[in-house]
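Try this one yourself first.
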């Protein structure tokens, strides 16, 4: 029998196979925690892009449903959305090591042309 799980942001109900539901429960550590923290993929994507809870609800929810949804704590949502990122990749580039193969200089004629047109 399929399991149903409601998004805490939009109220949309997702039906999923038992095996997928069990994986979600294991990841969340308990069924109760999963039900209290589940956010659907569409809402999660919009929240990661910087939209607020009310904006996401306006975009994804029916106008009649918005008033019946529970107010959520922004800190809880931020923890759910960004708290799972255990590894943060920081990329730094040392521009001093760029060689002429990767960073060519402008031809002197082109440089004079650019200087003339940019005045």
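Now uncover the answer:
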């Amino acid at each position: 029998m399929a399991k149903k799980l409601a998004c805490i942001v939009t109220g949309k109900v997702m039906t999923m196979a038992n095996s997928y539901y069990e994986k979600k429960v294991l990841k969340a550590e308990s069924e109760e925690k999963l039900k209290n923290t589940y956010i659907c993929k569409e809402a999660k994507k919009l929240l990661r892009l910087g939209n607020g809870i009310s904006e996401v609800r306006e975009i994804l929810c029916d106008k009649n449903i918005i008033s019946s949804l529970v107010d959520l704590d922004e800190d809880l949502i931020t923890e759910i959305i960004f708290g799972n990122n255990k590894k943060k990749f920081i990329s730094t580039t040392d521009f001093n090591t760029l060689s002429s193969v990767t960073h060519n200089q402008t031809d002197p004629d082109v440089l004079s042309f650019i200087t003339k047109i940019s005045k």
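Discussion: Helices lie at 18-28, 31-37, 41-48, 53-60, 63-66, 74-82, 108-117. Residues 30 and 80 are 15 Å apart (CA to CA).
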